[in-house]
Design goal:
Shape: globular
Order of helices and strands: HEEEEHEHHEE
Largest sheet: 4 strands, antiparallel
Number of strands: 7
Strand content: 25-35%
Strand order of the largest sheet: 1-2-3-4
């Protein structure tokens, strides 16, 4: 099964809950500029992420070998080093920067990507009110 089949399409997206299980959002695979991307819809807000983030984050977490704090932040907020959010925009990740693709909506990587990875069997995510973590499966 490929990612599009697991994650869904615009017509049939995957419905997810944020790590604290407090808000619903959807995720699907689409094509933009000839590349597959993840489209995350939160209410009326639409975010785009490079689909490569799934494999790259999974590999990083496997190398890390333990739970890692999510640390979700908006694009303009500073991130805590050693969190998934920080890694998702770091110049030291495999793409050398942001996995978020829409200017002013590139953040919240640590909020929306981990539950997707959990849903498709790549990671385990804690579901506390605050301070959630994830690890690779």
């Amino acid at each position: 099964m490929n990612l599009k089949e697991k994650i869904g399409t615009k017509e049939n997206p995957l419905t997810l809950l944020t790590p604290p299980q407090s808000s619903e959002y959807s995720m699907h695979v689409d094509t933009k500029d000839g590349k597959e991307i993840l489209v995350c819809t939160v209410g009326k807000t639409i975010l785009h992420y490079d689909i490569r983030c799934l494999t790259d984050l999974h590999n990083m977490l496997k190398d890390h070998g333990d739970w890692m704090e999510l640390g979700s932040k908006d694009e303009k907020q500073d991130t805590k080093e050693g969190t998934v959010e920080h890694w998702g925009r770091s110049t030291s990740n495999p793409i050398g920067g942001w996995y978020g693709l829409k200017k002013n909506f590139r953040g919240r990587f640590g909020m929306y990507i981990p539950p997707l990875m959990e849903a498709i069997g790549m990671a385990e995510v804690s579901h506390e009110a605050r301070g959630n973590k994830m690890k690779a499966i």
